[in-house]
Every structure is written in C-alpha cells, then in structure tokens.
C-alpha cells in the first residue's frame, strides 16, 4: 500500500520525467487528448444542434409567437380538432364529423386580440426553365413588408422582392442552377414570365431548400388561374399558414384551445416552452399520452458500441508501449530509486504517476481542443446537416465524464508497464540491461480458443436472437483472442527473416526481439481496421439488400413516356423524347379497358388476369389454417414451390393487378421485340393469330389459356349487394414466352385486335423506347422543355430506367480513408517508439559502416510490417461484428413480420475496401515512414 506522501513524491518524479522527455510525453498526450477532443467535440456539436421543441419552432417561424395551420390542410378533415401541446399528435372531430352547420372560423377570430397576423402561402412543383430544359422548384409567397415574414429566413445578399416580377432565391437554388443575384429565371406556368432574382437567403433549419420567395400577391393567384385554364399546368395544392405576433408576447394554451375549436392546429412558442399539465389537454383525455421518444436501431447501437470500444482499446494499446519505452529509458533512474530503498509498490506508483499526470493534462487539453474543434467545424457540420445549430450547449457532467475516460485510459495504459517495471532486477536496471523473455506457449492457445469462442458467441448469439449482448461480448472476446495470438504471429514471421534483405530483416528481428512493444502497436492497428471493416461490411450489405429489393420498371437505359387519357399529349411526349434523347426502337403499349354500350372507353374500369386455381400458393389457401405452425421442412418445401415464388404479388389474392399499364397490355406485333428485348418470331406469330403471349407461366391454365376478368363500376356496385357474385372471366388461347424482364408490369400481351374480340377497347397508354446509351439528366430536362412548349392539354410523364443507384460510395471511401489514416498514424507512432528504443542498435550500425539510407529503409519496413500484420488481422476481426449486425437485423425483421418469405439480408464482403486496407495502406505507411525519417546515422558511444 502506497501512502499519500509517497504518491506525492511519485507524481512529482513523474511530472519531472515527463518534462525531461518532452517528445515522448507529447506523443502520449496526443494519443490521450485526440480521442477526448473528438468525443468532446462530437458531444458539444450534438447538443448544440439538438434544439428543444421551442428552439426548433423559433428557428422555423422567426420572430412570430405562433403559427396557425388549417386542420383541413394538416389532417384532411373539417371540424374542431384536438392536439397535443407540441402539436406532434392531433385528431379530427370529436364525434367523427363536425357539428351541423360548423364552419372554420376566420383567422382573426381565433387569435389573441390585437395580434398581427401575416399570411404565408406555399406551393410546390412549379416549372422553371433551365439551361437544359425544364425543372421544378418550390414557391413561397408572403407579405415581406412585415418584419415577422422577413424573420423566417436570413437574407444573405441583395434585398427582398417588391414587385411580381422579382423574387428572392434560396442559396441552394442559385447553386443548383448556376445563377446569381441580378440574373433572371423563367416560370413556365405563368406564360414564361421572366423573374429577376433580387436577393438570396437561407432558411436556418432547411439549408438545402430549393425555392423562390415572392412578395404577397405575386404568383399564387396567377398559378391557380393558370391551372384552372390548363390542367397540364396544375401544381401541387397551395397551403396557407398564418404567423401570429401576439401583443402580450405569446399565445397561451387557452388561445390554442380556442383555435382548435375553430379548426386550426397551433404551434406556440409559449406553449412549447411551458406546456400545460396533461389534465388540461383534451387530447390526453381521449388518448393516452405518448411516452415514447427518439430511439436507435439495434444495428446502430451495435455498430456504435463496437467501434467506440475498439477506439478506446486502440488508445490503451498505443499508449501502453509509449509508457513502456519511457520506463525503459528511465530504468537507471528507477534502479536508483529501488537502490535507495523503494519497494515495488513505489516503483509502480512512479510509472502509474506518469499515466495520471499525462492523463490529466491530456484530458484537460482534449476538452479545450474539442471545444475549439466544435467551433471550427460548426459551419461545415451545419452545411452537411442542412440546418443551422442553436446556441452553444455545454453539459459539464458529460464533459467531465469524457475527461474521466481520458484519465482512466492513461492510467490503464500505464498499468502493464508499471507492473513489469516493478518486477525488474535492480542491478540489471542500474547496468542498463533488460532481460529478454521467451514468449508464452500457452498464450497463443488461449487466444485461439478465445477467437473461436468469441466468434461462435457473436454469430451464434445473433442468429438465436440475442444480438446486442452476444455480439458485443463475442466480438470483444474474439478481438482479445487475436491480440493474444499476435506475439506468436510475430515470432512465426521472424523465421522468414534469414531470407530477406538487410533492412526488412533488421525490422523483422527488431519486432521479434521487442514483442512487448510491437504487439500493442499491431493490436492498435488491428482495432482501427476492424472497426472500419465492420462498418464497411454493414454498408455494402445494406446496399446489396436495397439492390435486391429494387424492382426496375424497364430494362436499363429504356425510356418511358406517358400521358393520362390524352392521345394528343402522348403524341407530344413521343415527339419530345425522340427529338431530345438517344432513342432507337419504340413500342406503344395500349391499355385494354371495358367498352360502354355506346362504344366509348370505360375509363373507370380495370382488367385483371385471373390466376388459375391450381396455381394458387398453398401457404395462403385454407389448407394451411395456421401458417406459423408449419415446420421448417414444410416451409422450405413451400418456398421451393414456383407457385409461391412471388409472394408480394400473390399474397392472399388470386389475380394480377398492377398500377399503370396493368398485367394485361396490348401491343402491335411489329413492336413486340422492344417489349421482349429480342426478336421472337414465334411470339409474334402468336399475337398475329389472336393468341395471348404469357410472360409468366403461372397464369396459364391446364388448357393453355388465360382468363381475363373485366371490372366496371357497375360490377362493383353489384358485388357490394351480392358478395358471392363475380364477373364471368373471358378466355383467350395463350402461349408461354420467356422474357428477359417484365416491362411496365406487363405479364400478358395481346394484339389490339384481340382485345376487341373479347369486348375490350385498347387505348394508347405509354410509349417505351430502347436507347443507344444511358440518357443524361440534361437530355431528360431537354425533353421536358420540349414537351412544355407543345400545345398538348394534359400532363405527361417521362422517366428513364437508370437501374439501382447506390449511394454508399462516399461512405466506403470515408471508411477507407479513416482506416488508412489511423493505420498509418498507429504504425508511425509505433515506429517512432521503436526508433527511440533502438538508438543503441542504430549507433552500432553506424559504427560498423552502415550506409545512411539504412536507417530510412529500416524505419520504413518497421512501419510497414506493423501496418501489414495489424491490417490483415483487423480485416478478419472486423468481419465478425459486421456479419453479426446483419444477422441481428435479419432476426429482428423476420420475428416482427413472420411471412413465408422472410427478409433476406445478404452478407457482402467489401473486397476493394479490404484490398486497399491490407495492401495500399501498409505500403503507404512504409513509404511515409521512409520519407520522413532522417537518413543520417550518427555513431554514439555505448554506455554498457
């Protein structure tokens, strides 16, 4: 037991020793302070951007005291409403319908007396002309003469508009379209009205908004009139909200209840700041108060915990050898300390004192650096997050806890060197000699067992549904097992040294002789790489799942153009696409519908293709009364049944029915090759013979026919009165044909004449085109611009099938960069420690005539060796938590929604990420270490 007075002496000695060895101390301080700084900066930034509901509302509505929204717009109902104080939940009329004769009250009657009310109107999907064609933006209109309306956004440059032909643009709008204040833009819906941009602004909580701001009365009424005259120009519905500036500085809860009775939902700063008790909230008397809150998914918690644990482990592993080297450099001083009568506890206290001293300085410095880092990175984080932060938020208890972690980390890093130093022989320490201990033979065995057990626990536990605990504990055990194996791996590699050139041979032998110093450095690299690999596995696996769930409407590169019940608009769409886009062959897909008695199209009818009784999936039939009681073998047999292969389409139903073109499509036989993706003469002959071409054999009956069911509004009315009735199916002879991909949902193709033979009318629905190459965004905009210039009187759609477009490329690149930086940094630190610990060996090399570049090459190979071993082991270690998170996600999803075909989350290995980490990063570490190491070798007098 060390007395307090001895601790004071130990801390004083540790402080003086740290001051004398400034380089080594600075290295340790950097390793301790940087993680503290990173976590502190993250905590400060997170708390600062995490606005309270009142702050969030204030940032949205500016200087107003409250914002009133019509319940009709917010909820789609008309009548009195009930709402929570934060307006995050609300309900419609108390009795399901508004009182007889109820009308929404005028806004002036439901706001506090004497309030200033400012109306703000918003509408979306307004077309503007761009350099390449047509695009859509949001439009907002307000009385900008009122300070309240000006306060909802921050003017960055210029001024607010004053005339109908002037507008202010969001900064994102100017960036997207390459415009500036003073330029003009054209609003297509308003007869190509030119609008001059007189200012630019940003909305504090929506920096990415792309919109134009007009003064009141400039565009909204004109847009509504244009839409009434020309349905093709109809935009999304215009919404209105009212900003209220109350005379007494706030809108209280009683005023909110009054507005609720009048048909308004209110968000009040005063109510958000001081909400009423639940007993005064009518909504809570009808519904239980919601006590939930923001949560995190299981995979987020698992990944964050795994990466954080690996980061802390990395700090301890890198700081440990630094303390060990420091103790070795101070061994003579510690030997004198022991010779003067100090026992082992005093020696341990001196080394631990170094951890305490440097831990305190590193923790305090890390907090200060973290605060500075949060200030410096705030603008970048705000831009990346798309929202401005609130006032600075510093939470002392959280920051003290972060600093305490840094201090404890320093002490833990010094613990093992303290114990080993206290055991050294005093005479050997005075003579400057350090004994070399053989590696333990039991440790690799224990490590191998730990790796196997940890992997089994992590993966087996997640597969059994115990994801959180099993994955974290199993991953930790497996990684500790790998750390225990590292000395044996280094020793085994040492046997290869005799066949290597001088510099790599010296580096390898130095690593073998100094395994207590090399092992933690390798383990630190391994921890960093394992964390990045775990995240990369999850990222690419999630991307693979999204791609697996993606269902393309067309083949890659194909273009679809359609119009709603309008042949003139469809013709204009065809002309625009064929003029602006690199299309080749086209096909017109016609939609079969019922024919009225007068020979007109029955647009409200729909046509289904009946699924034969014998092709129904047994899982959904009455023969399986309780599907959840089926054994795994029975489920496997059903999954292999082709009748059950399309669960999402056939679930509980007996017909194919799709939005858009539908399952039954009419097409000219001459254009069949575009739909099938190849020239099929047999299929074309079948269409010409009046047969149906079936792209899904499940729709074929045993007699090689398909049954078509036509539904009309009259049929539905009859069904409501007689649920047992169903329309009589119409039968067509059919032939099965393989198709590379279903086009626009079509599964049965017929000729237009065949549709007429069964009492259907086929009207033109959409065109599909094959293309020479993938069309560009500019070409798509140009087509929309040409379409807008046409005289067609209906809305049209142009879409390009671009296939699945992953969005995780930047994430993987950042993970690779992170792993590279940390790996190179860790290897560089270890190399610096090795260089400081090998001065005598380097002096000997100089004395025997080694060339100056030997030191440079030696440092490079030392750094590269550590990075290579750590990266290879880390790549394997990271696969365990990465795979475990995917399995845990699959278990959670499939137990929440048990179905015949459970969610299948594929496990993908990020090969290029692994290749970069295992090859490029060690090579980079080798080159950097060689470049930044001085080549001059100075001979020094040996002291032993």
From TrEMBL:
Topology of this chain in the membrane: Multi-pass membrane protein
Keyword Membrane: yes
GO cellular component, one term: plasma membrane
InterPro entries linked: ABC3_permease_C (IPR003838), Macrolide_Exporter_MacB (IPR050250)
Compartment(s) where it occurs, according to its Swiss-Prot or TrEMBL record: Cell membrane
Record-annotated membrane-spanning stretches: 307-328, 349-373, 399-422, 443-464, 470-497, 518-538, 812-836, 857-889, 909-932
Keyword Transmembrane: yes
Primary localization class, coarse: membrane
Pfam family, one: FtsX
Domain of life: Bacteria
Gene Ontology molecular function terms on file: transmembrane transporter activity
Protein name (Swiss-Prot/TrEMBL): Putative ABC transport system permease protein
């Amino acid at each position: 037991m060390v007395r307090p007075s001895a601790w004071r002496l130990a801390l004083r000695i540790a402080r003086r020793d740290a001051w004398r060895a400034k380089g080594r101390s600075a290295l340790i301080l950097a390793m301790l302070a940087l993680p503290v700084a990173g976590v502190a900066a993250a905590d400060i930034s997170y708390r600062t951007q995490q606005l309270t509901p009142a702050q969030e509302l204030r940032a949205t509505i500016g200087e107003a005291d409250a914002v009133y929204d019509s319940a009709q717009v917010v909820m789609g109902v008309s009548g009195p409403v009930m709402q929570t104080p934060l307006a995050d939940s609300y309900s419609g009329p108390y009795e399901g319908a508004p009182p007889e004769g109820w009308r929404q009250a005028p806004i002036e009657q439901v706001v506090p007396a004497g309030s200033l009310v400012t109306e703000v109107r918003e509408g979306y999907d307004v077309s503007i002309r761009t350099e390449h064609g047509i695009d859509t933006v949001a439009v907002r209109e307000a009385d900008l003469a009122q300070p309240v309306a000006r306060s909802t956004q921050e003017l960055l440059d210029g001024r607010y508009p004053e005339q109908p032909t002037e507008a202010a643009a969001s900064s994102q709008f100017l960036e997207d379209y390459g415009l500036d204040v003073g330029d003009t833009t054209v609003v297509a819906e308003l007869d190509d009205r030119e609008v001059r941009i007189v200012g630019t602004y940003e909305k504090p909580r929506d920096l990415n908004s792309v919109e134009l701001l007009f003064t009141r009365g400039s565009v909204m009424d004109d847009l509504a009139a244009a839409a009434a005259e020309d349905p093709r120009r109809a935009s999304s519905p215009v919404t209105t909200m009212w900003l209220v500036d109350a005379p007494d500085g706030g809108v209280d809860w009683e005023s909110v209840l009054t507005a609720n009775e009048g048909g308004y939902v209110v968000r009040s700063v005063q109510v958000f700041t001081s909400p009423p008790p639940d007993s005064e909230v009518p909504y809570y008397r009808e519904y239980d108060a919601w006590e939930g809150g923001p949560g995190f998914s299981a995979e987020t918690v698992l990944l964050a915990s795994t990466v954080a644990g690996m980061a802390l482990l990395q700090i301890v592993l890198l700081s440990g050898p630094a303390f060990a080297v420091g103790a070795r450099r101070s061994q003579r001083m510690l030997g004198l300390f022991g010779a003067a009568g100090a026992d082992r506890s005093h020696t341990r206290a001196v080394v631990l004192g170094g951890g305490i001293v440097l831990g305190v300085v590193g923790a305090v410095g890390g907090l200060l650096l973290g605060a500075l880092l949060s200030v410096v990175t705030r603008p970048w984080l705000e831009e990346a997050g798309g929202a401005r932060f609130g006032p600075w938020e510093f939470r002392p208890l959280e920051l003290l806890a972060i600093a305490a972690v840094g201090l404890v980390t320093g002490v833990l890093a010094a613990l093992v060197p303290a114990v080993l130093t206290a055991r050294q022989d005093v005479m050997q320490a005075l003579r400057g000699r350090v004994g070399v201990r053989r590696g333990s033979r039991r440790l690799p065995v224990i490590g191998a067992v730990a790796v196997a057990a940890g992997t089994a626990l992590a993966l087996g536990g997640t597969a059994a549904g115990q994801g959180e605990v099993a994955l974290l504990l199993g991953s930790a055990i497996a990684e500790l097992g790998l750390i225990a194996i590292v000395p044996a791996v280094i020793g085994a590699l040492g046997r290869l040294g005799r066949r290597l050139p001088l510099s790599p041979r010296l580096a390898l032998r130095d690593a073998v002789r100094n395994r207590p110093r090399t092992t933690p450095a390798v383990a630190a690299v391994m921890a960093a790489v394992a964390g990045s690999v775990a995240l990369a596995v999850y990222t690419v696996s999630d991307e693979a799942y999204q791609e697996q769930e993606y269902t393309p409407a067309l083949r890659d590169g194909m273009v679809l153009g359609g119009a709603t019940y309008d042949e003139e608009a469809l013709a204009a769409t065809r002309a625009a696409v064929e003029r602006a886009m690199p299309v080749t062959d086209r096909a017109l897909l016609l939609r079969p519908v019922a024919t009225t008695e007068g020979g007109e199209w029955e647009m409200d009818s729909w046509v289904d293709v009946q699924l034969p009784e014998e092709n129904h999936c047994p899982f959904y039939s009455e023969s399986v009364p309780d599907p959840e009681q089926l054994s795994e073998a029975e489920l496997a047999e059903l999954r292999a049944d082709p009748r059950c292969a399309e669960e999402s389409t056939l679930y509980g139903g007996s017909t194919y029915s799709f939005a858009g073109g539908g399952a039954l499509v009419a097409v000219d036989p001459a254009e069949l090759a575009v739909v099938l993706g190849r020239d099929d003469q047999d299929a074309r002959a079948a269409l010409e013979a009046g047969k149906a071409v079936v792209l899904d054999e499940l729709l074929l009956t045993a007699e090689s026919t398909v049954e078509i069911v036509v539904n009309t509004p009259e049929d539905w009315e009859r069904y409501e009165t007689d649920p047992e009735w169903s329309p009589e199916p119409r039968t067509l002879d059919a032939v099965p044909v393989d198709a590379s991909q279903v086009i626009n949902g079509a599964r049965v193709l017929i000729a237009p004449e065949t549709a007429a033979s069964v009492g259907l009318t086929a009207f033109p629905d959409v065109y599909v085109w094959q293309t020479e190459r993938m069309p560009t965004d500019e070409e798509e905009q140009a087509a929309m611009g040409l379409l807008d210039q046409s005289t067609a009187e209906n809305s049209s759609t142009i879409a390009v099938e671009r296939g699945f477009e992953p969005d995780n490329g930047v994430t993987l690149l950042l993970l690779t960069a992170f792993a590279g930086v940390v790996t190179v940094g860790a290897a560089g630190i270890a190399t610096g420690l090795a260089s400081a610990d090998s001065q005598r060996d380097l002096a000997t090399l100089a004395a025997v005539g080694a060339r100056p570049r030997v030191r440079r090459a030696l440092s490079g190979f030392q750094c590269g060796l550590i990075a290579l071993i750590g990266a290879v082991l880390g790549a394997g270690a990271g696969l365990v938590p990465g795979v475990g998170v995917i399995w845990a996600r699959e278990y959670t999803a499939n137990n929440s929604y048990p179905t015949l075909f459970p969610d299948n989350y594929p496990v993908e290995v990020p090969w290029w990420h692994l290749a970069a980490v295992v090859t490029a990063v060690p090579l980079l570490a080798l080159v950097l270490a060689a470049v930044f190491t001085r080549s001059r070798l100075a001979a020094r007098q040996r002291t032993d």
